[in-house]
Design brief:
Length: 237
């Protein structure tokens, strides 16, 4: 094994992050079978949230047409479904933080040049409440932002936003309830730095309520433009 391979082996898990099988040497981070099962976001996509459009002639998806968004543009990489779903679960709950390296590579592979061209001041991960952070030991969005910041050569501000309300899972809620639930959930965490162009980072974009709530706080604090990127995006509501 040459030195580069040794380093790569330390950086990347020997198991495929998607099926957890030992990956054959030289196959890359994700085994070939899983790579074929990942569903990338394809053009044409929504000019707002970035998900693949169902009707080519549309500019915005149904979600974004129905509920206008405050952020400028979204950069999600994959459709949220298996086998990625399981890997994202382990990334969030099972301490598989190293998957973040692969996810950051995917974001850069798809949007790297575009993101670098947009002139962001920095990356802000979507925060979790400190109770959750204590329980899990880390915030997966922050881990992802860390890997991504190094690849994009941009600073990461993990404390820029704070989650001050420990919200319950939002699966059962409708749009209005989700927004209400999150209305006062976030605040600016520190005031020493003022960011103007911000890239929000999260693992999964589902209804968009979380990104929307974060964006509103950032804009109210003086940000000029907020975009988001995520590993996966739901099909919409
Ligand atoms: Zn696999
Ligand atoms: Zn959309």
């Amino acid at each position: 094994m040459n030195q580069k391979n040794v380093v790569l082996d330390l950086l990347y898990p020997k198991r495929c992050p998607l099926c957890d099988e030992l990956r054959p040497y030289g196959e890359g981070v994700v085994c070939r079978a899983c790579l074929g099962r990942l569903k990338r976001i394809e053009m044409p996509c929504c000019m707002r949230c970035g998900k693949t459009l169902e009707r080519e002639e549309d500019e915005y998806c149904q979600d974004c047409s129905r509920i206008p968004k405050s952020y400028e543009r979204g950069f999600p990489v994959f459709v949220y479904r298996e086998p990625l779903k399981g890997a994202l679960y382990e990334f969030k709950y099972k301490n598989q933080r190293q998957y973040g390296a692969f996810f950051a590579d995917c974001i850069c592979g798809q949007y790297g040049e575009m993101l670098q061209g947009l002139g962001f001041d920095g990356l802000v991960p979507v925060p979790v409440h400190r109770n959750k952070r204590r329980r899990r030991g880390y915030n997966q969005a922050e881990v992802l932002a860390g890997y991504l910041g190094r690849r994009l050569n941009l600073p990461v501000y993990p404390d820029y936003l704070q989650r001050i309300v420990d919200t319950n899972p939002q699966k059962e809620l409708n749009d209005a309830e989700r927004m209400k639930n999150l209305k006062n959930a976030f605040k600016i965490g520190q005031n020493k730095i003022k960011l103007d162009q911000i890239l929000l980072v999260d693992d999964i974009y589902t209804s968009g309520a979380t990104v929307e709530a974060c964006t509103r706080v950032l804009l109210a604090a003086g940000a000029g433009m907020v975009c988001y990127t995520s590993v996966a995006i739901g099909k919409g509501y």
